[in-house]
Amino acid sequence: MCEICASRSRDETLLCVVENPADVLAVEQAGGFRGKYFVLMGHLSPIDGIGPDEIGIDQLLARVQRDSVKEVILATNSTVEGEATAHYVSEQLRPMGVDASRIAHGIPFGGELEFVDAGTLAHAMDGRKKI
Q: Is 101 contained in some domain?
């Protein structure tokens, strides 16, 4: 367990799932998140022989139950593998009655539409919300 998750000041009911330790540092530098983390050390990639056992999904589910986690934030990368991993984890959490959420993807703050690639713009349009 890292120093962040060992801290008693963190919200134990909120767990952020990331692919690697560098992702923890990125979320911490952004500020605002006061929960704990679970690092998968990778993502699902059946073509490369990487399944749920290789990235610790069983340990994640055990931790969610043991620590009475109420919400899991899936902060995997927005690659095909990252999306598949987030979807798989959310499906595993559903029968446990734990809320699963996905980090938003799309236009970066301060970004200009003319410089955003088509895939990012399409994802942002799909993920729009009412204001």
A: yes
Domains identified in the chain, total number: 1
Low-confidence ranges of the chain (pLDDT < 50): none
pLDDT of residue 125: 85
| CATH value at residue 48 | 3.40.1360.10
How does 35-68 read in b/e, with b if 16+ C-beta sit within 10 Å? bbbbbbebbbbeeeeeebeebbbeebbebbeeee
At residue 131, the pLDDT reads 76
Distance CA 86, CA 103 (A): 10
Expressed as residue numbers, the domain containing 80 is 3-105
Q: Are 67 and 46 in contact (CB under 8 A)?
A: no
